[in-house]
Write a structure and sequence with these properties.
With about 850 residues, the protein is of the alpha+beta class. The protein is built from 33 helices and 25 strands. The longest helix is centred in the middle third of the chain and has 25 residues, at about 295-320.
């Protein structure tokens, strides 16, 4: 029997359970699935991908798996609020029930046009996901779902309803039942079953029930009003008050345990006006606009922030270019290193953590895997830098949209009270991509330039996924999404930009990503990113090939600079301020840095003259010449370290300076000093004293120092962590449907009786009989039923059409797998002919 085949009617069954069943009504969920079209089966597997792992052998197994507790819980949690309310209503309705009864329980006596309009969609969703089966006149909730949602003392129903009269009076003495019936003004009966039926009929008859309540004391009505919307349980003493005794005598309160009473479901529904829910929510709450801006302003603002996002990521990885912070033993970035990074970027720590996580999600930064493990840029970063600015932004935006890494969790605590660190483990939240896409889709539903009201947005998300376990996390992710989208330039002034809109799916289903549809694949995401980049390109400023030199030893870049110019200027000058225009300041140290990198004074003069729209100021020219004149006058090499200089007076000056005592210098020759410090420390020490030494090689050549760009080995971006089993694509689902149909054909195909074979087991025949039957089937072209044990020892039954028998193998078309396969004869347990068609 299928797990959802209805039990045999009993004397206490609800009205309608024993109604004669039409011949074409399915008897179980398996039969209901068997009557579905292939498209409907595919829809079920898309909506509930956990049913595919592994692929069911037939429709009976699919139905069994669809009724397991874990799968049903997962399916119920992913329903919207009204679909959940419909399922909860079915759990308190008689079984089987009708469409009209469900509508009445949801809309109440007065009716509700919104409920009437939304009910077909909600029931269609429950049918599609195999949570409900049967025609409209015999609707059944899957048994496991009914057990989860039906009222009980240990798990109250979300409807607030209690047990039925029949359930609450089970085990009550016949004498007590007859006393209740008599007190309620009903004729006594000869057995408990008829007494329960009589009391149930009274409570469900609106006219007689109203007349009974009109006789109730006011205090009794007050008690019922407190229980009517739940919880339906209350406490009474061994000697209840008169108004409570009146309710107990008439069965309006029924005892469930010593000192505990319950309001029967039928009585509660009368008091509620027929409603199973106090407030049905058939219509999703709208997302309203808080403010509206001109779309051009939104796009321009978002584009400006997109440019800032690129500059921030570049600055971050430039900071880590020679090797970034060390990796913690447990993984991730230390709190101290995150603080340093935030200071270097001039950003708050949570914002700096977001950029670090985004660079990691985009595959631009990773650990280098060395013994002294550190974070560094990946080779993909160099490729990313060569892309045009719009494409670089699109790569970041698509990585953010699909990443399960959730930067907003950084600084919080995990389940074991450990701090969650940036780039560390335990930051993946599988709901993050779905929530981000849904938030942006809701923004896209507003008029262009409209900034959403955050409260209405969160209310809509809570309606679409009302599961209490997921609400808090989803609400927090939604809030982080709004902030991160603004930082990244997907939105501007809170409204979705045109290039942000291009990142979204053009699917019209608002819950596409919430009901098991696969997320965009790599090719689709890349295409959407390219479309967004094309829309962003005209809004970004063009890189400039010049700066404006000032007399105060500064240079102003009035916009983004071309990459070679920006890199050269970053060596020659220090960034003083950022914004729409970047200000660089020239200092002796920055000029010396350029000279250390192999530039000469003439090279620097020519560079500035070629890239400045203003004449090179005299103070800057003097600064370059003065630093160059002293640069390399002193030479430092490895002895432990030494200083050599042709000017003895200069060496005498160094020895006489008290600041050189820490270097422990001594004269080896008139033009040579030796030091106990290493060459690097000696170089820095003399520079701090105001000298401009140059390092030299053992051969006496000046060493040209360049920043060493440290890169990790090739690394791929982290894979998103899926929410449950991987979401299937259309090809996989279509193949699974074919396999399930074929397996169902094999398991249900009529076949001739095989002697000495128990019903339902694999056929058993001798090797000679198997070979003879196979050879006969090859000649007649007929299909046969076989039992087969594969190499792993798994037994299965199949329907095959043999094509060739030779060498101990049978080549046949396998209806179960819908393909031609080869079977070893010694693995066939037996064979039987299929029954002739009627």
């Amino acid at each position: 029997m299928s797990p959802d085949e209805p039990p045999h009617p009993t004397a206490t069954a609800n009205a309608g359970a024993s109604t004669p069943r039409p011949a074409d009504t399915p008897r179980s969920l398996a039969e209901a699935l068997r009557s579905r079209e292939d498209d409907a089966l595919a829809g079920l597997l898309h909506a509930r991908p956990d049913l595919l792992n592994p692929v069911p052998t037939d429709l009976t197994q699919l139905a069994t798996r669809a009724g397991t507790r874990a799968s049903v819980v997962r399916a119920l949690e992913r329903l919207d609020r009204f679909a959940q309310q419909v399922a909860q209503t079915l759990a308190v309705a008689p079984e089987p029930t009708t469409y009209d009864e469900v509508l009445g329980l949801l809309a109440g006596d007065d009716g509700d046009p919104d409920v009437a309009e939304a009910l077909p969609r909600a029931l269609g969703t429950l049918h599609e996901q195999a949570l409900v089966w049967g025609p409209d006149d015999r609707l059944r909730l899957v048994r496991t779902a009914r057990e989860l949602l039906a009222p009980g003392p240990q798990h109250p129903s979300p409807t607030g309803l209690g047990p039925t009269v029949a359930e609450a009076t089970a085990g009550m003495s016949p004498t007590r039942l007859q006393a209740i019936v008599a007190a309620a003004g009903l004729p006594t009966t000869h057995d408990p079953v008829s007494a329960v039926e009589s009391l149930t009929a009274l409570f469900t008859d609106r006219a007689r029930m109203s007349a009974l309540l009109d006789e109730a004391p006011a205090e009794s009505v007050e008690v019922l009003s407190r229980l009517v919307w739940g919880p339906p349980y209350g406490q009474v003493t061994a000697d209840p008050a008169r108004h409570l005794r009146w309710l107990l005598d008439r069965g309006l309160l029924l005892p469930t345990a010593p000192g505990t009473v319950v309001l029967p479901r039928e009585a509660a529904l009368h008091l509620r006006g027929g409603r199973a829910h106090r407030s049905p929510e058939p219509v999703p709450p709208p997302v309203v606009a808080a403010r509206e801006h001109r779309p051009q302003v939104v796009d321009a603002t978002a584009a400006g922030q997109a440019y800032t996002a690129l500059a921030t990521v570049e600055e971050l990885l430039k900071e880590w270019d020679e090797g970034g912070p060390a990796v913690l033993r447990a993984g991730g970035l230390s709190v101290r290193d995150l603080k340093r990074t935030a200071v270097a970027l001039d950003l708050p720590e949570p914002v700096a953590a977001f950029w670090v996580e985004l660079a990691y999600a985009a595959g631009l930064v990773a650990s280098d895997g060395e013994a002294d493990e550190r974070y560094a840029a990946t080779p993909a970063y160099d490729e990313w830098q060569e892309l045009p600015a719009p494409e670089r932004w699109a790569a970041l935006a698509t990585a953010w949209l699909s990443a399960t890494r959730t930067a907003g969790l950084i600084g919080g605590r995990d389940g074991k009270d450990r701090t969650l660190s940036a780039l560390g483990p335990h930051l993946d939240r599988s709901a993050a991509p779905e929530v981000r896409r849904r938030v942006l889709a809701l923004l896209a539903g507003l008029p262009e330039g409209a900034e959403p009201d955050a409260d209405s947005l969160l209310a809509r998300l809570r309606w679409e996924r009302p599961s209490p376990a997921a609400q808090d996390l989803r609400s927090r992710i939604a809030g982080w999404t709004l902030n991160e989208a603004e930082l990244l330039g997907v939105t501007g002034r809170g409204a979705l930009s045109r290039h942000g809109r291009a990142l979204l799916s053009d699917d019209g289903d608002p819950a596409r990503h919430g009901r098991g549809a696969p997320a965009d694949d790599t090719a689709t995401a890349r295409a959407r990113g390219a479309a967004a980049a094309r829309l962003l390109a005209p809004l970004l400023p063009q890189p400039l090939d010049h700066v404006l030199l000032q007399a105060d030893l500064t240079a102003v870049a009035p916009g983004p600079l071309e990459r070679p110019l920006a890199e050269a200027l970053a060596v020659l000058a220090d960034v003083e301020s950022k914004g729409g225009a970047t200000v660089y300041r020239f200092t002796p140290g920055s000029v010396r840095r350029a000279l250390d990198a192999g530039q000469s004074a003439s090279d620097l003069h020519a560079f500035l003259a070629a890239h400045s729209r203003t004449p090179v100021p005299q103070p800057l020219a003097y600064l370059i010449d003065d630093v160059a004149r002293r640069h390399g006058h002193l030479r430092i090499g490895a002895a432990s370290a030494y200083v050599r200089c042709d000017d003895e007076a200069l060496l005498n000056e160094i020895l006489a300076d008290k600041r050189s005592q820490g270097l422990r210098l001594r004269r080896l020759a008139p033009t040579v000093l030796a030091a106990q410090a290493d060459p690097g420390a000696l170089l820095e020490g003399l520079r701090s004293m105001g000298f401009a030494p140059a390092a030299e090689s053992p051969e006496g050549d000046v060493l040209i120092t360049r920043a060493h760009a440290h890169r990790t080995p090739p690394r791929s971006a982290p894979e998103p962590v899926p929410d449950g089993p991987p979401l299937p694509d259309d090809t996989l689902v279509a193949a699974a449907v074919r396999a399930i149909r074929a397996g169902d054909l094999a398991s249900t195909a009529p076949r001739k009786e095989v002697h000495e074979t128990p019903s339902g087991s694999l056929p058993r025949t001798t090797s000679a009989e198997t070979l003879a039957t196979m050879q006969a089937a090859v000649m007649t072209g007929e299909a046969v039923w076989i039992g087969y044990v594969n190499a792993e020892g798994a037994a299965s039954q199949r329907v095959i059409a043999p094509v060739r028998v030779e060498g101990g193998f049978v080549t046949a078309y396998d209806h179960t797998a819908d393909e031609v396969r080869t079977f070893a004869l010694h693995r066939i347990t037996g064979v039987a002919e299929l029954a002739d068609d009627e």
